[in-house]
C-alpha cells in the first residue's frame, strides 16, 4: 500500500469527522491495517473494510455510504464537484445581497440562504420586492429588522414545506477546497438527510410522529448509559465478585487477583433552560421531548422555558401544545431577565451538584449583564453546558457566542445527532 492511499484514507476520515462521526486515531489505525488484508482492486471489499473499522453505529451507514461514493472518485468527477461548490458559494453570496433590509444583510444562517437560492425565480422576485417596499416604508426604522427577518424565515419555511425544497445537512467545513466540495455533495444528498441529521428547525409537522419515535429511541439509549449502577475502580471500595471469579479462573478458581468497584458517581441535578423565542422554538421543542425521556433516570431534573421571561414547566407528558401555552412563546430573547429570576426565585436549585443546561443561539438583549449573572451562577454549581444551534463555523461572527463561552462548555446542537452526542459526552461518560 503506497502513501497515496494512506493519505486518501486519512482525508476520508476527516470528511467523516466533519459529518459528525466520532472517529479517533485508533479507528483510523484499524482502517489502515484492515486495507492491507484485502484485495484493493475490489471496491466492495475496500468499502466494507473501512465501514467495519470506522462506523460504530448503524444510523451512520447511509452517511458513510454517501461520503464513500462521493470521495473515492476519479479526477474529472472531483473537478466537477469543486466547480459545483464554487457555483453554490456564488449563489449563496448573491442570496445574501438580495436578503437585505435597508442595505443591511438580514441575520439569516446558511440554511435559509440555501433555501432562498433554490427558490423559483418568481418566488425570489416576490421576496425581493417585499424587502424593497418594507425598507422604503414610511416611519420604518432599523428596529423593525428582527420582525422582517422572522417574516422571511416563515416564508422560506413555507416554501420548503409546500414546494419540496431539498434540505441541507449541517456540516462543518474543513477549509480544504476538495474536501469541502465532497462535503457539499453529501450535505445535499437527499438519501442521507434523515431526521437524525436534519436541522431541527426544518423538521416539518408531517414528520413529528417519526421524530418523536426517534427521540424516544435516542433517549432510551442514553438513559441506559446514565443508569449504570456501578463504575469500575482501582480504589478499594467493594469487591466485584463476578470480575474477581473470572480473574481467578487461570489460577484454578483461587481469588488471587481481586477486582473492586465503587458506587456510581451521583447523578447530576439538571436545571434545563430552553429558549422559546421565534428562532429557537423548534429546537426547544425537540430538546424538551428528548429530556423528558431522560426524566426517569434523572428524577431531579427541573425544566424552564424563557424568552423575555422565565417560566417553569413540567416535563411529564410534554407536548408541543403545552409549550405553545407558555407566556413567552415566540417572543424576543432576554436571558438576563431569566437568569435574574433563576437566581432570586429558584436559587435553591443552584447547588454544587447542579448542572445547568442552556439551549439558545446566544442572541439576547442585555447580553453583557446576562454574562455577569452566568459567571455568578458558575461559581455556585458544578457545570454549565450550552447547546447552541448555530453552525460551529459561524460562531466567530457573533460576539455573544464568545461572551457566553467564557462561562460555559458550548456544543453545536442543530440536529438530533448533535443533541444526542453532546448529552452523551456530558452526562453519560
UniProtKB/TrEMBL annotation:
It comes from the Bacteria. InterPro entries: Uncharacterised_CoxE (IPR008912), vWFA_dom_sf (IPR036465). PANTHER family: BLL5662 PROTEIN-RELATED (PTHR39338), BLR6139 PROTEIN (PTHR39338:SF5). This is VWA domain-containing protein.
Amino acid at each position: 500500500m503506497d502513501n497515496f492511499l494512506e493519505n486518501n484514507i486519512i482525508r476520508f476520515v476527516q470528511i467523516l469527522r466533519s459529518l459528525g462521526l466520532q472517529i479517533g486515531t485508533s479507528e483510523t489505525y484499524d482502517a489502515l491495517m484492515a486495507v492491507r488484508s484485502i484485495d484493493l482492486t475490489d471496491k466492495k471489499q475496500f468499502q466494507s473494510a473501512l465501514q467495519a473499522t470506522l462506523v460504530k453505529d448503524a444510523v451512520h451507514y447511509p452517511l458513510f455510504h454517501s461520503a464513500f461514493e462521493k470521495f473515492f472518485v476519479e479526477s474529472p468527477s472531483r473537478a466537477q464537484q469543486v466547480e459545483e461548490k464554487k457555483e453554490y458559494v456564488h449563489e449563496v453570496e448573491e442570496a445574501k445581497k438580495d436578503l437585505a433590509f435597508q442595505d443591511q444583510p438580514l441575520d439569516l444562517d446558511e440554511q435559509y440562504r440555501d433555501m432562498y437560492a433554490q427558490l423559483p425565480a418568481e418566488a425570489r422576485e416576490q421576496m425581493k420586492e417585499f424587502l424593497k417596499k418594507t425598507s422604503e416604508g414610511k416611519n420604518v426604522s432599523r428596529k423593525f429588522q428582527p420582525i422582517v427577518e422572522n417574516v422571511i424565515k416563515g416564508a422560506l419555511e413555507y416554501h420548503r414545506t409546500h414546494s419540496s425544497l431539498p434540505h441541507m445537512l449541517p456540516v462543518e467545513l474543513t477549509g480544504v477546497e476538495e474536501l469541502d466540495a465532497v462535503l457539499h455533495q453529501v450535505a445535499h444528498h437527499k438519501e442521507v438527510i434523515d431526521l437524525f441529521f436534519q436541522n431541527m428547525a426544518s423538521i416539518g409537522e408531517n414528520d413529528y410522529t417519526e421524530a418523536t419515535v426517534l427521540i424516544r429511541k435516542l433517549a432510551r439509549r442514553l438513559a441506559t448509559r446514565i443508569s449504570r449502577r456501578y463504575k469500575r475502580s482501582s480504589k478499594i471500595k467493594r469487591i466485584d465478585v463476578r470480575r474477581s471469579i473470572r480473574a481467578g479462573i487461570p489460577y484454578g478458581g483461587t481469588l488471587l487477583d481481586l477486582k473492586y468497584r465503587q458506587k456510581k458517581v451521583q447523578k447530576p441535578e439538571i436545571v434545563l433552560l430552553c429558549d422559546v423565542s421565534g428562532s429557537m422554538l423548534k429546537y426547544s421543542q425537540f430538546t424538551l421531548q428528548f429530556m423528558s425521556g431522560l426524566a426517569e433516570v434523572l428524577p431531579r431534573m427541573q425544566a424552564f422555558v424563557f424568552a423575555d421571561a422565565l417560566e417553569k414547566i413540567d416535563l411529564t407528558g410534554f407536548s408541543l401544545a403545552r409549550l405553545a401555552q407558555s407566556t413567552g412563546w415566540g417572543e424576543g430573547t432576554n436571558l438576563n431577565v431569566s437568569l435574574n429570576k433563576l437566581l432570586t426565585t429558584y436559587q435553591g436549585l443552584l447547588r454544587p451538584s447542579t448542572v445547568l443546561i442552556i439551549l439558545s443561539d446566544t442572541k439576547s438583549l442585555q447580553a453583557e449583564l446576562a454574562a455577569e449573572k452566568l459567571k455568578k451562577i458558575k461559581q455556585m454549581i458544578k457545570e454549565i453546558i450550552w447547546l447552541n444551534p448555530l453552525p460551529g463555523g459561524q460562531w466567530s461572527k457573533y460576539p455573544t457566542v464568545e461572551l457566553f463561552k467564557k462561562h460555559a462548555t458550548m456544543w453545536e446542537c442543530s440536529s438530533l445527532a448533535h443533541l444526542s452526542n453532546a448529552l452523551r459526552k456530558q452526562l453519560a461518560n
